[in-house]
Amino acid sequence: MFPALETHLKQTIPDPYEDFMYRHLQYYGYFKAQRGSLPNSATHQHVRKNNPQCLLNGSLGEKDDLIPDTLQKEKLLYSHMLSLPHLRSRQLLYDELDEVNPRLREPQELFSILSTKRPLQAPRWPIECEVIKENIHHIEWAPPQPEYFYQPKGNEKVPEIVGEKKGTVVYQLDSVPIEGSYFTSSRVGGKRGIVKELAVTLQGPEDNTLLFESRFESGNLQKAVRVDTYEYELTLRTDLYTNKHTQWFYFRVQNTRKDATYRFTIVNLLKPKSLYTVGMKPLLYSQLDANTRNIGWRREGNEIKYYKNNTDDGQQPFYCLTWTIQFPYDQ
Predict the structure, then answer these.
(1) What is the maximum span of the chain, computed from C-alpha positions, in angstroms?
(2) Element (H, E) at 22
(3) Beta pairing, strands 168-172 & 221-228
(4) Ramachandran class of 227: left when φ > 0, alpha when ψ lies in -120 to 50, beta otherwise
(5) What element of type H or E holds 254?
(6) Mean pLDDT, the chain, as a whole number?
(7) How far, in Å, CA of 56 to CA of 201, rounded?
(8) CATH number of this structure's domain 168-177+203-327, picked from the four choices 2.60.40.3120, 3.40.50.300, 3.10.129.10, 3.40.50.720
(9) Are strands 262-269 and 231-236 parallel, antiparallel or unpaired?
């Protein structure tokens, strides 16, 4: 394994869990701090016995006849809390201890609800999203032996980004929702109409162009540019309905050649620091290996380098991740 990894990470990379919890507690800690000064609603018995999570409307106009005066005061206090600019929850839920817990409202009609009376509904997508018909499924599998980190040699290639001017676009999604937009509705299968073929058309069995796809759950490849026979520049689609984040990658390739060494370079990552600088490898999943040998996701890749891009969008710098890989099978 990589012996200096833990020490190096402590010195250079902040703990992502600690950062997440800090922001999480900044938001929810206010509720927790106020709980001690509120009446103990667990002593009241006016909760419907057959519905331990009874929704209370923020308007205070429903089911008021079932709520005692003390709990009504608690609701009013929470209602005031929820009116603050940084506390926007519109739901109050009874939990099993009859305590009122503010919850953030999830996007409506985007997630299926498991029901014992009928099978699980098909997943719903924002109508802006085009989704391929194929169902992507991966087996669960753990490597029988530890997967070793990549040992940087110091002479890894740093490709210069050339883009479409010197390369050929072989895959490109349509434009995506801009910053600040939000989905208006959702449906099974996402966008209406025929799913377009975005990858290039092969000119024959000797055409070794890779066929890319990312229109499935968590897929985020926006564009692929072929800059050499076995070399591709990749641009990621930013997270939808956010301030634009690109922190991971997930896409599919087909029409591979077993004996070739491919190079992929992602050109628009946003994190200044990455575990790829200290030996982490990309993950590879072979559908053929999964079907015939019961092998799932595994770490692969060589000549791994994470570095600052030579271009930016005028607002923030971009970072590149480049690596080489040999696929296990033809086609």
Answers:
(1) 79
(2) helix 16-35
(3) antiparallel
(4) alpha
(5) strand 252-254
(6) 76
(7) 55
(8) 2.60.40.3120
(9) parallel
